[in-house]
Structure prediction request, 321 residues.
Amino acid sequence: MSKQPLTDQLDGAISLLLAKPGVNPGARPASADASVEELLQVARDLREMPSPQFKASLKTELERKAQMSAKPIVFRPGFRTVTPYLHPQGPEFLDFLKNVFGAEETERTDMGPGRFHAELRVGDSMVMVGVGSGRTMPVVLELYVPNPDEVYKRAIDAGCRELEPVRDAHWESGLRFGCVEDASGYQWVIAAQRSGESYIPEGRHSLTASFVVKGAAQLVEFMKQAFDAKEIQRHEWPGGFYAAVNVGDSVVGVSEASNHEWMRPMPAMIYLYVPDCDAAYQRAVRAGATSVSAPTDQKYGDRSGGVTDAWGNIWYMATPL
Prediction:
């Protein structure tokens, strides 16, 4: 039996427990009196409990996630789940959007000399434009208009290159479309659905992105895992693939890249509104995406984070604060 006071024995035993937590959690100093064992067991149990700071932080995070999952997303006027983010060569691109497609500029924020972020309404949809970033990511955009022949001609007159003349689609009754490429390399599928009451197909909106990648079917599977996407249409043929995919309230196209000049791989940048960007970010990373930035509260009113998928598409997931 030790001749040390019991308080000193207990202090020594606890110090040993804290100094070597992984060696033997049941160990105590050989000289310690057996009467300190009960108190030492209490110390072991307390040591395994989370700190008050951790519990407070966990409570705050769980409450935040519960509120986000229960609260419907309130979009700013014109915004959808999917908003294309474009990086044109220069500011004249905004005039092109206004003159050819009737776009209305609703927001512009200066980001530094020669740089700004702009938002424009096109029909019932929005597009984000970043000028002066030095980034180039031309993509395919699907645009539904009531007068595709007229809009197509305006695009050609504005300097666009013809990719496909306006014609009736043989694979879908009532669909009329033509394709052009603008000076910044963006490719526009200008279309109208002539059957039904609206020129926009049911469930779609005026403007959306269309993905062209090698391995389109795999991209669709990624979108299902990461963003709870739903495949609503699929066409396959030798060497070809197209799927229409629903993401939130938006529909995007996913096509297999080919040797055709307007079916080459074209990674897109997307601003994606979701109920919980933290959860979507984690799902995207688990599905194979690489982090660009972890979700953070932004001064412009969204909480957002970004990832890059295996095909080079950049997804910024956001939830309004």
